[in-house]
Amino acid sequence: ISYKQIEALKAIGVTEVVLAINYQPEVMLNFLKEYEKKLEIKITCSQETEPLGTAGPLALARDKLIDDTGAPFFVLNSDVISEYPLKQMIEFHKGHGGEASIMVTKVDEPSKYGVVLLEETSGKVEKFVEKPKIFVGNKINAGIYLLNPSVLDRIELRPTSIEKEVFPKIAAENKLFAMVLPGFWMDIGQPKDYVTGLRLYLDSLRKMSSPKLANGPNIVGNVLVDESAVIGEGCLIGPDVAIGPGCIIDSGVRLSRCTVMRGVRIKKHACISSSIIGWHSTVGRWARMENMTILGEDVHIGDEVYSNGGVVLPHKEIKSSILKPEIVM
């Protein structure tokens, strides 16, 4: 789950978030502790001992999702980034009186996704068409749902797809409705899409004249810099860059279209573009990272090393260049 999602939920009065996790829940919860404190919102974990798909985790977390009021609850896919008009979605859900609401977004290439067909006036979902070869519509599931507790009665505690097994049944009963998502949307499950999603998010901050964006003589375009990060003289940062907490950027560094995560050190005159630099990594002097280079946690790149799309697993030291895209284990 992203900070932006938690922030959006807090803004509409949500007091508790349940995180469905299968792998290393303690890592995620430790990471989210500061957000829990900062936003004053309770974050708990529902751990799967085996992957349960996109619906099974809801059955597993049933007791945490239902309260005495019988109020609907939000379900958000953690690997998407978008605007989150959750208040408008609540009003939409109340207005149609159905059992479930989903957010849909318009895309240029619907053949890559499952398309949602709906009545334009009411938003009632008629059916789903998986990766259509001929054009039938351009609206796809955006991974943002508002569900009545009764939906949980439709889900067994087993690996289940909410998109392929649960929603089509609700739609067949005319109880599923779709709201068109305004603004940007991006599935950021892949590194190159993450970088694109960052650009879209920063663009949205610019349109809102957000004070979060950095400015200054060394900033080009849209840039986020954590207040605890230190940037040296003569750097050129941007466009489309995010620099996390505790980072140290030495003098003469060039950054563009990249994310630099918590605790990273980038040494003098390094150049990084279209890449993701993982937590507590180091990039050496005059090194160059480009073409979707991905550094895992605690990776140390030597001086003058070049990476052309290398994917480096955590806790590695790289002393020679990576000349073509490959995974370094």
From TrEMBL:
Presence of the UniProt keyword Ligase in the record: no
GO MF, one example: GTP binding
One record GO biological process: GDP-mannose biosynthetic process
Key words of the record: GTP-binding, Nucleotide-binding, Nucleotidyltransferase, Transferase
Domain Mannose-1-phosphate guanyltransferase C-terminal: start-end pairs: 219-328
EC number: 2.7.7.13
Domain Nucleotidyl transferase intervals: 3-201
The organism's place on the tree of life at top rank: Eukaryota
Matches recorded under Pfam families: GMPPB_C, NTP_transferase
InterPro entries: GMPPB_C (IPR056729), GMPPB_N (IPR045233), Mannose-1P_guanyltransferase (IPR050486), NTP_transferase_dom (IPR005835), Nucleotide-diphossugar_trans (IPR029044)
Enzyme superclass (EC): transferase
Pathway membership: Nucleotide-sugar biosynthesis; GDP-alpha-D-mannose biosynthesis; GDP-alpha-D-mannose from alpha-D-mannose 1-phosphate (GTP route): step 1/1
Keyword GTP-binding set for record: yes
Spans through the membrane: none
Family the entry assigns: Belongs to the transferase hexapeptide repeat family.
Name of this protein: mannose-1-phosphate guanylyltransferase
Native source species: Populus euphratica
Gene that encodes it: LOC105112399
